Amino acid sequence: MHDLLPHISAQLTNVFGSIPYFMPEIYLTGLFLVVLITDLIFGRRSVKLCKIIACTGLLLVLFKDLQQVALILDGDHVIFGSMLLLRRSAVFFKIIIDLLSFILLLNFTWDDKLKAHPKGLSDLYTISIASILGLHLMAMAINLLSVYLAIEMVSIASYLMVAYRSETALSTEAGLKYVLFGAASSAVMLYGISLLYGFSGSLDLLGIVARLPNVNPVSASFALVLVLIGIGFKLSFMPMHFWVPDVYQGAPTPVTAYLSTVPKIAAFALLVNVMPLFLFSADWKGIDFSIVLSAIGIVTMIAGNFAAVLQSNVKRMLAYSSIGHTGFALMAVVTFNLQGLSSLTYYLAVYALANIGALALASYFSNIVDAEEVEAYKGLGLKYPVASVCFVIILISLTGIPVTAGFTGKLFVFSAAYSAYEQTHSIWLLSLMITGAITTVVSLFYYLKIPLYLFLKRTENAEVASERSYNLLVLAIIISFLLVLLGIFPNSILKYL
Amino acid sequence: MITLTDFLLVGALLFCTGMYMIVSKRNSIQVLIGIELMLNAAILNLVAFGKYDKLNNGGQVFALFAIVLAAATTAVALAIVLNVYRRYKTIDPDEIKNLRD
Amino acid sequence: MTLVRLLFYTMSFIAIGSALYAALSKNLVRSIFIFFVTLFALAGLYVIALADFVAVTQVVIYVGGILVLILFAFMLSGRETLNVIEQHKGKFINMAKVPAVILAALFLAVIVNIILKADADKLPWVKQAIAQKNEITPTSSTIDNIGVNLMTTYLLPFEAISVLLLMALVGAAHLSRKEGRA
Amino acid sequence: MGTALLHTDQTIISYTIAAVALPLAASIINFCLPVKSKAAGWISTLAILVGCVLSAIVFARVWNQQPLHTQKLWFTIGNTKVFAGILLNNLSALLLLLVSLIALPVHIYSTAYMKHDDRYSRYFTYLSFFCFSMLALVVADSMVLFYAFWELVGFSSYLLIGFWFTKDKAVQANKKAFIMNRIGDIGLLSAIIIIFAQFHTFDIDALFGQHGLVKFMGPDNGQWAFAPDRMPSNYGSVWTRGAMTTLPAIWQYIACAGIFLAVAAKSAQFPLHTWLPDAMEGPTSVSALIHAATMVAAGVFLLGRVYPLFTDTELTVLAVIGCFTAFMAATIALTQNDLKRVLAYSTISQLGYMILAMGVGAYGSSLFHLATHAFFKCLLFLVAGVVIHEMQHIKEENNLDIDPQNIQYMGGLRKKLPLTFIVAIVGSLALIGIPLTSGYLSKDGILIQAFEWSEGRSAWLKLIPAGALFTSWLTAFYVSRLIVKIFFGEFRLLKHHPDIKLHISDGGWQYRVPLILLAVCSLFPLFSLNPFFYEKAWLFESLKPAEFMARENIYHTIIPIGVNILSVFVMYAAYAIYVKRNTFSFPQTGFFYRLSYNQWYLDKIYKKVIVKPILGLGKTCFWFDRNIINGLIHSIERLSRAVADLTAWCDKYIVDGFLHSMAALVQSIGNFARKFQNGKVQYYLYSMLLIVLVLFILKILI
Amino acid sequence: MNLLTLLIFIPVLFALVIVLLPSSVRGSFKYITLLATLLQLGISIAIYLNFKTGAATAGINHEDQFQFVQKLPWIALNLGSMGKMQIDYFVGIDGISVTLLVMSALVMVVATLASWEIKSNLKGFFLLFLLLDMAVMGVFCALDFFLFYLFYELMLLPLYFLIGMWGGVRREYAAIKFFLYTLFGSVFMLLVMVGLYLSVSDPATGSHTFNIIQMMNPANYAQGSVFSAAAHQTILGMPARTVGFVVLFIAFAIKVPVVPLHTWLPDAHVEAPTPVSIILAGVLLKIGGYGIIRICLGIFPEIASSGAFWLGLIGVVSILYGACNALAQRDLKRMIAYSSVSHMGFVLLGIASQTAEGVSGAVMQMVSHGFLSSMLFFLVGVVYNRVHDRDIYHFRGLGTQMPQYTAFVMVAFFASLGLPGFSAFVAEAFTLAGTFKSPTVNGLLPYWMAVCGSVGILLGAAYFLWTLQRMFFGKVSLKGGEVWKIALTDVSIREKLALIPMAVAALALGLMPSLVFGKINDSVLALIQFLQAK
User: Fold this and answer.
1) Which of D690, D696, D697 sits opposite C103 (nearest CB)?
2) Pick the CATH number of C1-100 from 1.20.120.1200, 2.50.20.10, 3.20.20.150, 3.20.20.140
3) pLDDT for C56-79, tens place per residue?
4) CA distances from residue A445 to A442, A449, D663 in whole angstroms, order as listed
5) Is pLDDT above 60 for B95?
């Protein structure tokens, strides 16, 4: 204790000094408590209230996020004693996460199946707010402890959300698989962290990077690989992707939308926080992680896209496609430059938006005609033209065909990769790009399946179910409109990134 | 003198035992136990190394957090396992495979 | 010193032995109870590593919390589980487990390899810590140090984990709740 | 662009344009008329009449004068300016007049001949269109335009052959004709392109005119090079049009081969001649105009246009092929029973003569023969038309199931159709080349010059004039056979159907006037006041080559005499043979025979020594024609079809199969990736850990 | 308002009108579309008439020589270390585009007239139709690669649905095949495009640019960039510029299409409804040719020269292979589809020759084929609409049954097989002339290619005449008997209205090739000069 006495005041100053840079998270914590209390007080009938509170609160958080933009103008800030790093990309990731989360929170009650959950949805709001807090931490984490904590926070929230519809077998099954896989991955990761800590004597990533070169490179690489497993689990890249299809399919659709987007963005934020430290350290002699990530990217793209071709369940198909997208986004990561980062941000935002839209429409069709399999979509295109057209636009964006935001996203990623290639002439980047191009074509195979069934296949029964789920429809329309708009004027967002 | 390597080796053995459990046991709860074993292996490492980090207590604090997190994870996992049992009347992970290609 | 060493070996032996038994046992109940032993042995090892606070936490949370939880779960899931599993009783070595054994063995080989390669005791930072007296000695009390650290350096994780625990609580409660009840 | 145009030239040009355009106008008007409108015939006839007059004026002005050449920029492609214009020299003026002159009677004749057809105005639309194409072909000054009209001529012929498009044979025939012509067209196109690549111009005058480029270039040292020794002293501005690039010499041969191909296709030369007999499925009047007189002459005309391009060797090849064609077609004609087919083969044979003449350098004679042949062959076809028309009449009146064109059913029509008979005799004599007819003049010219040409050449080449000579006797034979079968003897149909009524006559004035007109034109006075010396013909005099030899050698005397005596003999033989058979019942027809006491003896000799081998030869040739040449064409067709099927198969299974295998590959990769997804979470974990570990180990080891 | 912009976006305006109109007035959609296309035609003709010729407005590689230019900054991003990204809305035309524009506008009108046959889901159909229309016009006008690509890809989706929703029995297969094929090409095109973009910088602003014209200037390539001619970079062991050229070429070759990348075409054409077949054959195939000229040749001139032999070879193979395949077909539409392959082979051959005659012939062939193939497909549609059968063997003697129709068919067939007087003749003849000239002028192609090309013309005659004989001549004999006989009425006024402009256009171009050559000549010469200068 006496050793620490001289440091305490400095530490406390640091903590207090950090608080201004931590406002969104503080608001989130507050929001969490408010929602929790509302939930506890009003019980099952509080869904609407919880929703309103959660959403308005999130808007407030978003506002705070935006305020942070001003804070980072003077450079990066390490806060809470090297626990978190607030920097430009983190802020943008946070803004995107909050924005998407806002949509997702709105979305929860719009899925009929989830809404019919007998135990109410208010707990879900509580859990998801906590999860968003975790995501925020993830985007900023720069310390092994905060990394681990953030990942666990998000993971546990995710387990709960997946298994949330405890009365249905599939949801529970998905939950079990998720929790077992996730817990095992995090155990492995923790072991890696412990080794990393042991080898460097520090939890601070910067400190680790500084000291790791003194260790045997093979050992250090192994520890890093184990840590990568934990991040990979969240990103669901090959070979940590096995849980994805089952879980996405089993989880309630809005939860799938949640899982497939925001944690992924946060995990990418984490990846770009962590990985470059090791790559650009001149003393690093272990495994070249840019090659590892490239290889993973290639394999992930292939595995995700090719397997998706054979799927018939819409959600499962989208799950595989999200694996493919992870692979593609890794291309932007391995460029390890600023352009790569901004293109990654853009790509992820656009992908997430489109994916949310796609899953919202999956909910929509599931609500009105109980369609889960793609065969059930047969002939719906002419009966529900607006939704179907939106679906097409969204899928086109996911494929990456002009004029949608997906295309511009792909273009920026490609150009980032290209410019990196121009400097390094790395064969891996080239093969990444080629694989990306090929898998884009392959992805068309399965993305087209939905329009194919919607429009091209004819069906006999002509009855039109009463249109409900206007909310989802409006959401889908807004999303597809945004996607097209961003496709034509990517400037409007990209110039900030 | 007990060296760090000794601790690490013990940890490694525990870790691998846990790993063996999670891939082979036909019971979700045993799988969970396996995970706990792996976690403990990691905690052991942390604690062992923490000995040389007197000022910051990094290892020990991390160990504490890990234990708490393990508890939370286990609680959640068990809740899910119970639910699974209600739906499937079994907790053998291999039997639960409605979701598959 | 030799006593400590002896103690270390004993504890290690108990921990590993009981873990192996838990791993190999087909009987869930036995598995759970022998896991108690492992955890206690580990707590002992923590003490040997001069982390008494961690050891206490280990005992309190793991043994008192987690295992009890597991037992509850086991009991809630009823006897059927047990029965189903007991039917599998049979040979000690099961062909189906061979891949798992191989995996574990491979991992062990790799980990041991890298541990030996890393040569943990000669790591620069360890030497530095010893040189700077940044080493916990059996005589020093670590608890107050941990307390201060938790309130300063690790304040953020400390606060965050409270949110996490609350959330886990809410979630777990939600899942375990019977349907239809608020 | 040779000389500056005078005011009068301007008038001539406009006359020419009018003469060419009038049929087009008629065609367009007719196209707009109702299908059955009877006005169509007169519109077309009027157009061609006026055209004829204008052509005559043009001819009078241009003949033996400086060639007239005028052109306008048509379009520019790259740096190449493509001009369209009119080139009037002796050759084109002659053809211009000839075509309109032949077309006029045919038009008149057609108004009657096609009177009852359902698509009367269409017929005249096509006919006028043909006239337009042909006339334009004749006056065109640029190779591109020439090619264009060359094809249009083929196209209108296609339309006319298939005029009765419900007849399968007609449709087959016109397809065949078009494709055969198309082969020739490709040859011509290639030639044009080669010439363009070599000379960078399409201008016929600049290429083949008096100071034409072609004259100064020739195969040399493996290059189609510029020959300095042929360099003109006053080389024109054409030389400065862009740098001269030279092609390898082989392209000169290919160009010539291409042109020959075009000639062979249009003028029905071996081996592309088989379309012509089939083309007889069209209306007879069409056959008369197109497939006897004009279109088929286009090949010869083309040769005339590009004459300077050919080297001596190439000309020899031409001669050989012309000779062979002439001979082969003549032998085939011997045994045909279809009236029009006989005439068709005879046309081929005569065209062979013209090509032969071109080959041996008898440029003038060739064109002379072209002109005379046009008249008498047209005449013969019109005669055939009358005969067929009347036979058709009989057939319909008596509901008989006969082929109205089969000469086996005819005979003794001399009485029924007196005028027809007379003009037919005139036509045949002209075809055989008996003195006092135009045919004598032109044909003898060819024969004599062929002999002259063979002087001092390889002995094998002597076969050419010999073959030509022999062919002329064969001609005499089959023509006589034809005439005898039709007009002499008894009406054989009566033998089988004794009760049929015969209400037939020469027909109305629309039939008579053209026949008479053409018959008159088939006699010598139109061409020469001297009925015996071909070189005195004005037409020949204007066209003869500069180095023409005057009557210096023996050929000039021997050949006409030899040919004619033997021809008469052959005619008699034919007469004897074919009339003789029926002599018993019709004694009045066989008085020549009765006069001869050893008639049987002669008959036997004829039969055994002459007739049988000759007939056999004819049959063989026909068989060869049908089976080998046509078979070749068919097998090419079959081959192309097989190739087509193969490519289709290829497309379906190999190219598409590749695509499908790609899809299968995608599926298999997908399946592989899916295999891991068996729903067992522990398996997932196991795979994950194992993969990570194995990769790590590999990475470290490698 | 810039005329080109107006031309491109008119369809969108009308599409908006259609979107807003209720379905109860669906009968008026076709008239609205017709109005839009007619308006476009009017504008395109105005552009054509106001198009200035002369060496000073040749275009090709001089930005200031393009006409009707509109250039607006669109996407401009500061990418920090990577420099600035510059994407402009940059449209403009030179001689090569202008004729294709007019042709496309006319084809669109005809396609609209052919759309009368569409009976179901009119709103969707005409919306997609107009979208496609916009994309097509955009492709021909775009001078910014990004913009070009955008329009290029934008064509895919409407076509997919147009084929897939209103097509024949195997429409799904055809639509997907088409989509995948084209996307395959264009995805890789995207990669090259990005590479080019990063290699080229605009000398005026210094930022990277997608400007096609700037890409043509070797001086604008950054030192050592992937596609810099001076840098001799390699990709996968092959010279980078060669790879770039090949990739772009494949992308466009799929559109053209050339053997062996053509198999989407017969399927797509056969299954597509008539208006879509018309657009496919009339306009879309031209985009491939146009792309090769504008982009492949423009950006990689030296590769185009060194690879000319292979280009020509592919062209020749396409000519012959397509013709042979056409000969083997018994589905009329399929036959015509394969004939398109054959005819488009000439385009490639002409382009490969890199002579003024060859390239002009190629452009002419594109324009000519635009009219003729549209006409042919329209004609097939006429029969198909009446009896829903296209098998050549099922018809006989249609000449008696439908005389006017037969007349149109004959015009179309003979024009297609290269009868003088029609546009195809001029095009093919000069393509071959250019090809033949090539060995002496620039030594790119061997002589025999011209010869083989002319054999293709012959084969063309064979299959067209065979069809004519089989289907239209002879005695009437129909598979469907009396029912068909009643159904097979002669062409209606509307059909005539659609057919006559095409026939007249083909004829006019045949008689006055200067209508096309006059406009393209300067550009072609500039292109040739550019190619020679390299």
Assistant:
1) D690
2) 1.20.120.1200
3) 988 888 888 887 887 777 777 666
4) 5, 7, 10
5) yes
